[in-house]
Queue: 3 jobs
Job 1
Amino acid sequence: MTEQTKTRFPAPLYAAAGAGDMAVEQLRKLPAVLTEISERAAANFRTYNEQAGTKAAELRDKASTTDFEALRGNAASVATSFAQIAQDRAVAAYTALVARGERVVGTGVVEAADVVNADLATTEEPAAIEAAEKAQPTPKPRKRAATK
């Protein structure tokens, strides 16, 4: 039998495989989630409709007393910190997808390697094939008739 070598695919391939696996998992949950959301929406519709008028009046009063200059001053520092947090979360999510993809791709590679190794074990050795080819005489080249 041949010795199996460890093949490493690029991380984006593993991330794509992990994302696909995660998508399949989430899509399987979709019918139950849709049923739950529609039931909650029907139950809460009247409550939200009544609260909307009150909330709109509160927001109008708050907007008239808000200091927008102070908000603008804080916006840059808050945006920078949110961008850093988003970047950290994106790196963590990408790393998780790569790890998940390695598991998905790895199981397929191991299963395929087992099939190939089993096939190799049941077929004849390459040395026997090469010996049979060498035992056959090679045909001599034909001489061409002279043309005038």
Job 2
Amino acid sequence: MVFVLVTITYGCKKIMPSEPSEAEVLDGPIDGLTTAQLIQFNKGDADFGEVFTSATGLGPIFVANQCASCHAGDGKGTPFVQFTRFGQSDTLGNTFLNFGGPQLQHKAIPGYTPEQLPLGAPKTSLIAPAVTGLGFLDAVEDAFLLALADPFDLDGDGISGRVHYNVIPSYVALRPNSIPKNGKYICRFGKKGGAYDLLHQTSGAYNQDMGITSLFEPIDVYSGQEIDPEVGTQTIHDVVFYLKTLKAPIPRNQQDSDVIAGKNLFNDINCAKCHTPSMQTGYSPIAPLSYKEFHPYTDLLLHDMGSELNDGYTEGFALASEWKTPALWGLGLSKMSQGGQYYLMHDGRALSIEQAIQMHGGEASQSRSLYNQLIENQKNQLIKFLESL
């Protein structure tokens, strides 16, 4: 009997898949958290996966019933769980906010009718971004981003990235050394960089994605009336802490000769002018995030991406053709959360990195042209580098 048990155990070990390395998954906390912080991280992780029902406040109209359904494995979403944005206040003339904007709640609990898109409303379809490493992006000081910006293209390189100065809700706490302008503040989260910080982003997601009210966002998306919070303030704070302390994606195969060559090509064709390789955090109350260099491959700025990516939708003070540079770190792991298939760009329309590059217009047109001039082997090296991030 002992021999049989040993044989079975050994056989199971041989056929069971090996555990993925830390560099092959997006989940996991940053290094250096205290025991109490790890407890809060795990609590936020559990809350991030909570499935809401009508009994716990879902809806009555909604997009998803849990955070994790759009951010599987903390990675990118897919067109199968995309969401539609339309309308905002009249900051830029997109005046459909009072028709149910800024988000279309296309699902409903029994007895209720989902929203319909108002006739003539400018709209965009979006897929959820990966949520790893966000605490580092949150801790970058405003002055760092302003130093990267060149809104009037004074250096004449054809790239004129700008920070998104937007109106912010009263409940957010300003980050240290904030630099306001005309009553607006530099925002950096969301596809157009419309959200100020992770509390702003998270509270809005509970409200607009799941129809869940909180102390921060108390207006019910169905009735338009203020109602009692349906999720606790501590839960919101725990999820925000979880998002702040998710580790940054870990690069892979950095000593591979093709990866090294691809990195050089990335710089040569000026991709790094928008997808900034390195950033520096300022002070953060979470010590492991303070004064750290990190490598997200984004400048967190708005760029005009040309007519092909102009879908008529504005957000905050970002124009319809303007999109925030997405971080490229973790790009090579995206397929793991997307069912084995890339869905890239803001709406997931690009099914490969090659397709995504070809959709770069506007300020990125020159880089796209330089990419197209590369020989096939060089293109493969560049893509191999991007997949290593």
Job 3
Amino acid sequence: MKLRSLFVVLLALVATSVSAQKLKKGSLTFLDNESKINLVFDFNGVTVDGKAEEIFVKKRMEKEKTPKEAEEWKKNWEGEWRKQFMNNFIKYCNDELKNKSVSQSYSNAKYTLCVKIVNIVPGYFAGPYSKDALVSVVYKFYKTEDMNTLVTQFSWDKICSPFSDYQVDEFIRLKMVFATAGKSFGALLNLSTK
């Protein structure tokens, strides 16, 4: 329980410091009167540690003890893990939001947010030489009825989950960084809209 409380406090601190950033292009005032925002995720073309995802997957599979474990890891990476990353983003974003909510089931919402995952850095645990997990994202807003016309977009590079480097398990590190990304985005949305 103490670890979870510490995790929540750390997320709040990060979200507060990160959310002070301003949009470089456009604004989010078009969302002032919107209570629901449709949400889609885009992992197409994602890089891992700045390299093509396929290269990362191949090298990472080689670290598993057996071919069966390697295939299981790949299946998790492309399926269940990705689903958990998205769920963490949504949960922590909605926990932060005051009068709005985001969901993948709001297909009738006026606006859709596309969370384009650009780069993932899984980090690693190596005692004092550990490295935090990071994610770089481009947030793109569209009118739901016209997903070809971009309303506004902004990027957020190297979102960091502090103390994720204390986690031995890469899956937990990445869940933490997607939670931080969601919480930070929710905080920004609160500051940028009514």
